[in-house]
Amino acid sequence: MGASITGVGHYLPEKILTNQQLEQMVDTSDEWIIQRTGIKERRICRDDEFTSDLAIKAVDNLQKKSDINLDDVDHIIVATMTADYYCPNVASRIQAHIKSSHAGVIDINVACSGFVYALEYAVGLINSGMNKKVLVIGAEAMSKLVDWKDRTTCILFGDGAAAFLLEDRSSTDFLAFIKQSYGDLGHHLVCNGLSNKLNKGIGQTITQSGRDIYRWVVSNIPKCINELIDKSNLSLTDINWFIPHSANLRIIEAVCDRLNYPISKTLLSLTLCGNTSAASIPLAFAIAHDEGKIKNKDTLILHGFGGGLSQLGIVIKLNNL
Ligand code: ACO
């Protein structure tokens, strides 16, 4: 018995913000953004649209595609750093929508690593025998936390949501996990909450030291992926798809280069969605699944990295999708 992915869905807000439109807002250019990040456009919520609205639509999409009953879900885990409210959490809004009266409801925030963390918890709940059916959602409205006058961050982020259903099946899809935390480097990526001790003088908008994070990613993520591969008793040539957090194409190219892994076997959501934080990995997965790229029996690495600083990687072999 064990946790298996049995359904996926996603949703992107309708409004598109292109690099050309950003040229009218800040001192930047389409050429700079594409060359430094690989991003061409991103989706942005309406003023009256929030993370839970995106998450609910991603769950509706999952239900429509899979025709799965969700009113007996045991747990709803939402990874987000842009919850609509401190209270109630986003998971509670989803629970009200799908009417799963006995479901546990929890949001977790590990910034861009959040979705893979949420997957690890869901697998723990199912593999321990506590739960049979868990909804895992990555959803973000990053546009609400962006300073639209700051060209170093506003060109990066976008909004979106994607959902996975995990169910107890004859064997688990989840072959190995590895996580590493670097709390002493937390000041490199900050969005102030009730305290502004890490980033004084800045309001509730996201700020990051791009170059420091870039260096940290390129020197640490390849090591983590190699350890993960060793743990799963596989080799990188067994991996059909690598889905890293879609932060920046240049970073992913540098990571693939160090791993000697072909960039053509990575799946990213960043070109048309930007950096959607906790939504980026499940979005890349769900879009590729819709396109028929990801198939049942594929072996994948999902790897989240970002705020904390934090990273978590998972090896998955799909058995029921
Ligand atoms: N348009 C034009 N010029 C710009 C822009 C812009 N939008 N933004 C910055 N510049 C300028 C800078 O001012 C600088 O000018 P200067 O040399 O005159 O000082 C120059 O471009 C180079 O700036 P860098 O910051 O060195 O640019 P870099 O090549 O590092 O790219 C970026 C910046 C895209 C942010 C990159 O560093 C990056 O992606 N870092 C990692 C981000 C990341 O992975 N974050 C973690 C995940 S996010 C999460 O957890 C929520």
Description of the structure:
The chain is of the alpha/beta class and 321 residues long. It folds into two domains: 2-169, Thiolase/Chalcone synthase (Peroxisomal Thiolase, Chain A, domain 1, 3-Layer(aba) Sandwich); 174-317, 3-Layer(aba) Sandwich (Peroxisomal Thiolase, Chain A, domain 1). 32% of the residues lie in helices and 26% in strands. Helix 4 (90-98) links the parallel strand 4 and strand 5 (104-108). Helix 3 packs parallel to helix 4 and helix 7 runs parallel beside helix 8 (249-259). The chain starts with a strand and ends with a strand.
Question: What's this model, at a glance?
Answer:
With 321 residues, the protein is of the alpha/beta class.
Key phrases:
321 residues, alpha/beta, 2 domains, 5-stranded mixed sheet, 4-stranded mixed sheet, 32% helix, binds acetyl coenzyme *A
H/E series: EEHHEHEHEHEHEEEEHEHHHEE
Q: What is the CATH fold-level name of the largest domain? A: Peroxisomal Thiolase, Chain A, domain 1
Provide the spatial order of strands within the biggest beta sheet: 1-7-6-4-5
* CATH architecture term of the largest domain: 3-Layer(aba) Sandwich
Query: CATH superfamily of the largest domain, called what?
Result: Thiolase/Chalcone synthase
Task: Give the beta-strand count.
Answer: 13
What is the SS-derived class? Answer: alpha/beta
What does the overall shape look like?
A: globular
* Tally of structural domains: 2
Bound small molecules, deduplicated: acetyl coenzyme *A
- CATH class assignment of the largest domain: Alpha Beta
How much of the polypeptide forms β-strand, as a percent range?
25-35%
CA gyration radius, whole angstroms: 18 Å
For the biggest sheet, the summary is: 5 strands, mixed
Count of helical stretches: 10
Q: Percent of residues in helical segments? A: 25-40%
* CA distance, first residue to last residue: 16 Å
Average pLDDT metric:
96
- Low-pLDDT sequence parts: none
